[in-house]
Amino acid sequence: MSGHRTRLGGVEYLFCDGRRAPDRGGRRLSDRELRSLLIQHRSSPRLRAVLEALDRQRSELNRHHRRDRAAHRLEAASDQLRCYELASPPPRVSPMVIAQVEPPARPQPFAPNQMFDEQAHYFELAFIGEDDEAVAGVVCEITLPNGKLVRRTTNSLGIVRIEGITAAGACTVVFPELDEEAWERA
Asked: The organism sits in which domain of life (predicted)?
């Protein structure tokens, strides 16, 4: 029976049952190393395909050799999963010609991007209570970067959002109906 080769983490492995050894040299993984490898690559589709193929071969072998005593030893050997780390040859590097790269004709002048001045900005605040639940109906006063004062109330999700702010900058938030000593900033 042939084993199943696969590459995991850049290393080539041969998975087989207890009746097979690698054709060319390879180091057999200990049970601890095999368990570690299976845990480390448990989500790998390649490893899953190899293990499913080995399971199909085991069940097929067990179906054909049920009662024979020699088959019982063969069955026990086939239930042992073995893994060999195969020696990988170094990758081959082929020579190639690198095309000459020409520099740009003239350097491009640097111009600062006016993106933030051209686009509208927004302000969003989420008011969360001590129980990590949103608090609705809290009045807050927001002073925008241009000095305009906006008064809003948090919605059912505890959120206040102001869109269409034309100037970039920091906003100041005040909660006039709350005791400032009773809350702290996040």
From this structure: Bacteria
